Amino acid sequence: MRIGLTNDHHGFTTKEYLKEYLINQGYKVKDYGTENRNSVDFPDYAEKLGKAIQDKEVDLGIAICGTGIGMSIILNKMKKVYCAKVSTTSEAALSKSHNNANALALSEDLSEELTKQIVMTFIETPFSNIDRYIRRNNKIKDIENA
User: Fold this and answer.
1) 139 lies in which domain range?
2) Which CATH number belongs to the domain containing residue 23 in this structure?
3) Model confidence pLDDT, tens digit, residues 12-30
4) Active-site residue 98, yes or no?
5) pLDDT at 146 over 90
6) What is the pTM of this model?
7) DSSP code string of the chain
8) How many domains does the chain have?
């Protein structure tokens, strides 16, 4: 599985340890920046990850900024990108099993251990394929394409 990571200046440290962790878990990781803690505009980096998801360069994306909110807003503006801003493992699981999210937005304020747990839950949870969730996700796509 190919995982795309991106961050702004606030999320740099989290992205760096998460990248190493995912590589050690056997995942292929593509880093869409930033490469340091210098101030940047988060939309530029969220867009890079969103395009990678759209172009199928990566299977899933993870975006990290101060709160995760800005990254999630940008990613959810992009067609075929379904980003969940989560803070718990339960939210991570539900974002995949019910909503079939393909991107995750995280706050850099989460502990390292919780961040790893959330990310692994997100990666490992399959979409449920239950009729009501398929129907609801199709409605999201209809709104997206209206």
Assistant:
1) 2-144
2) 3.40.1400.10
3) 999 999 999 999 999 999 9
4) yes
5) no
6) 0.95
7) -EEEEEE-TTTHHHHHHHHHHHHHTT-EEEE-S--SSS---HHHHHHHHHHHHHTTS-SEEEEEESSSHHHHHHHHTSTT--EEE-SSHHHHHHHHHTT---EEEEETTS-HHHHHHHHHHHHHPPP---HHHHHHHHHHHHHHT-
8) 1
